[in-house]
Structures are given as structure tokens and as C-alpha cells.
Amino acid sequence: MNLFDKFASNARQEAPPEQYRSEFEYLNRTGLLRPMRVRAFLEKAFGRYSGDENEFLGRFRSRDNAQHVAAAFELVVHELLWRRGLQPSSAQIGNGRPDNRIRLSSGSFAIVEARTTQPYNNSHYLQAIDAIDSVKRQGIRLDVMDVEEPTENFSKAKLKQRLAAFLAQLDTSCLPKEFERSGPHFQFDEGGGSLKVYPIRKKGWKGGVGFRDDFDMADDDDIRSALKSKKGKYPSVAEPYILAICAAKAYSSERHFVEALFRESRGAGKEDLRGLWAKGGGSRVSAVLACYSFKPSSIAGARLQLFVNPTAGHPLGPNPFGCEQVVPGPDGYRTAGASLRELLKLPRHWPSRAPHK
């Protein structure tokens, strides 16, 4: 059983991915060296996977990015546990089958479940970014700001044609070196939205998009939703229960995890915005293994942190994962740890370089 299809080398596609295309489709077909190495890493990790292979393949090979990214994260978590010597297995416990049951250094067991926030999926906006990025003029960075997201189809050819004409008539010596809202800009109002493109003079820039107003941010609402969906599982199992939460959008921060876990105030609106562990709540969840900005095609760039519940019903004990541990608050502290890349035993510049054996 393989994760990816086997193609003749001349049938592989050399083009980089369009942002709105399926992540799996890109990894499956690309002939570019970096994603080919990611593909080889994932195939090797799948050879050690202890869950239901047929069910997993259906999710991993899905053209739906939400399913594919979630499955890829689950596989990377399993590989991390295996490399840490935690002997991950998937077996029936009570009325459920956890993603992973691990053996801790003490000889006792713990449960690790993986959950992923929803990836950003406005294909109209992502197609617009790809169209803008394809219109290049040496020495000009294109910052896409003040955006109202398009919500329907529009002509990408018209967008590229009009933007190219706008750039062609610019005197680059008169352009600002940093973003200025009052500076010259190109505006495109179609698809039910509005995009403003600000040209910035940037020596050595090869052209294309630089900064952008980005909706691809996993905030505390995304993380809170992911936590709530799994917080009450396996209530009768007297073992530590760890949630591995992947912030699948391009940008996410430690602050959003801290809010989703520890926020004390309910908020003024109808929705209860208190964190999972506020005022001693969420005691079934012993710890949260937080993964930031994860994409299957750029595993090594993701960041990993462990948050431990100070009032857990079944405390985790020493950090078994080897990553940085964070205890927020006035008396909080950090315990240094290795990066996800190091924990997976990947070289410093992987996937530009081949992995260790």
C-alpha cells in the first residue's frame, strides 16, 4: 500500500502549486525536488503507521484539503511518537479507538488524539493571489492590502492584463520603499470583492506578491472549536489524555493557543469565550501538543509546543515529546526543547537536502 501514485518521471509536473489546488494533488504529481523528498518521508512514515490503513488512505488521498491535511498531521504525530520511542499503537479502549496509545518512560500509558483546525478555503481569493503573483516586474514587490474577499468567479485573465498594464506605466524611482496606504495602487473590483495592489520599490526583488492582507490565520476561535470537539473523549480511561492540535492555516501564534486554553473571562457576547482550562475546567485533557502553521508540503517549517494542564485529572508528568514546554501566566516559564524538524531527525535545510538514514 502506498500513499502516492507511481508516475513515470516524464509524467510528473514541474510547476509549483497553485494555492487553490488540492494539497494532495500537488504532492502526488509534482516532480520538484523539495516536495519529492517530503513525499518520500511521508511514504516511509506510513510504513510504520499503526492505525487502519485503508481508512487512513481514503482521508490522506482526498482532494478535500481539510481531510488531507488532517490525515497528514496525524501521520506526522505518529512518526514523532515512534521516533521518541513511545511505541504508538491503535487499539480499542472502552467504547473508542484512539489515534495513538503510547507508553511513557514510567511504564504507564497515555492517549494522544490528533485534531486539525479547518484550512483556509476561499478559492476565489487564492486564485486572485496566484493571478497577481504571476504578473512580475523586476524590482517591484506587490503588496495586496485593504481586501474585501471575492466570493464568486471573476476573470483572472482580465486581472492579469489590467495589472500588467498598470505596472508597465510606473516610474519605479517614484515608488515608496515601504507600504504606504496613500501610495499609488491598482484596484480590482470584481467577483463580489475588492483587491488593492500596492507596488513597492524593492532592490533585487524578482517580482510578484510580497505581503498581503491574509485571512489565512488560525485564531483562538478556530483552536477553541478544535479543542471542544475532542475534550470529553475516553472519560472512563484512567490515563493522561493529550490533544495534538494542528493550526492548519498559514499563520497562527502562541497567543491564540493561550487564549483558547487559559482565558478567564467569558466575554460580553452570547458565546462563552473562556479557555478550556479556565477555573479548573477541562480536567480530562492533560496536555495540548500545539502545532503551528502546518502544511504537508512544508513539514519542517512547522513549530511544536506543549501546554500542560495544571489541574488535570490525570497529570502527564515529564514532557515525553521533547519539544518546548510552555507554562503561561505571571509565574509562568518555558522549558527549552527541540524543533519538530530535529525531533523527526531531518537535516537542517531539509527538504533542500536529503534526510538522514
Structural class: alpha/beta
Number of strands: 13
Q: In whole angstroms, how far apart are the ends?
A: 22 Å
* Uncertain ranges: none
Tell me the Rg in angstroms: 23 Å
Beta content: 15-25%
The general outline is: globular
Main sheet specs:
7 strands, mixed
Give the strand line-up of the largest sheet: 1-2-8-10-11-12-13
**Helical stretch tally:** 9
What is the mean pLDDT?
Answer: 87
Tell me the series of helices and strands, N- to C-terminal: HHHHEEHEHEEEEHEEHEEEEH
Q: Helix proportion of residues, in percent?
A: 25-40%
Task: Identify the notable features of this structure and list them briefly.
seven-stranded mixed sheet, 357 residues, four-stranded mixed sheet, globular, 18% strand
Give a written overview of the molecule:
This protein has helices spanning 23-29, 33-46, 53-60, 65-83, 123-133, 156-168, 220-228, 254-262, 340-343; strands at 100-103, 109-116, 140-148, 186-188, 194-201, 209-212, 217-218, 241-247, 251-252, 287-292, 303-308, 324-327, 333-335. By secondary structure, the chain is α/β, with parallel strands linked by helices. The chain has a seven-stranded mixed β-sheet with strand order 1-2-8-10-11-12-13. Strands 4-5-3-6 form a four-stranded mixed β-sheet, covered by helices on one side. The protein has a two-stranded parallel ribbon with strand order 7-9. α3 (53-60) crosses α4, α5 runs parallel beside α6 and α7 crosses α8 (254-262). The chain starts with 22 loop residues before the first helix and ends in a 14-residue tail after the last helix. The mean pLDDT is 87.
